[in-house]
Amino acid sequence: MRRAYRLLACVAALLACRVAAAGTVQVQVQDGAGKALADAVVFLESREARALAKPLQGAEMAQKAKQFDPTVLVVTAGTAVSFPNRDTVRHHVYSFSPNKTFELKLYSGVPANPVVFDKTGIAVLGCNIHDAMTAWVVVVDTPYFGRSSASGAVALTQVPPGNYRLRVWHPALPVGAPATDQALVVTAADQVVSYRLPGATGP
Fold first, then answer.
1. Across the chain, what does the average pLDDT equal?
2. SS3 state of residue 14
3. 26-78 pLDDT, tens digit each
4. Contact 123/117 with Cβ under 8 angstroms?
5. Which of 56, 71, 105, 187 has CA 20 to 30 A from 49's CA?
6. Are 14 and 143 in contact (CB under 8 A)?
7. Residues spanned by the domain of 150
8. Do 30 and 168 touch, CB atoms closer than 8 A?
């Protein structure tokens, strides 16, 4: 019994050290011209990160004022996304993307069943009634992700030291373009990374 307690204590200590050693990666995303780029999806991939990724709770892609809200949603694989219609008109939401094909036929309110995004990739959404409505669901297999603010900044917190692939994607990239990526070594210390995204232009 004492041996089991000692083992549990060692495991707890190792986990505590791992959390204590985790740092923040601050990424500053710029467009091809060097200007701050908002709504860029930034995430860190590794084998260890993939093992820690879990489906999110409460994710939603609403429709409001005949627009999707948010325009870009980032979720982990396996996340069930709700599609509440908060407009006074009905919508017909669909996606033909390889990682998720679905259709929510003309509806008001909240569909009975959410849509489960179980494969990584970028799903483009549209409305069969309102052609101007477009949105994206970016599905990742890591818990270390975020979306850049108006200043182009995104903070990835509690990232353990290790070797990662830093990946960045933006709706302004050519249709079908995957997230760009580069190697990144994360240390226990907080770090700031500047990332220029060629081919993407902010407003």
1. 90
2. helix
3. 999 999 899 999 999 999 999 999 999 999 999 999 999 999 999 999 999 99
4. yes
5. 71
6. no
7. 23-53+145-203
8. no
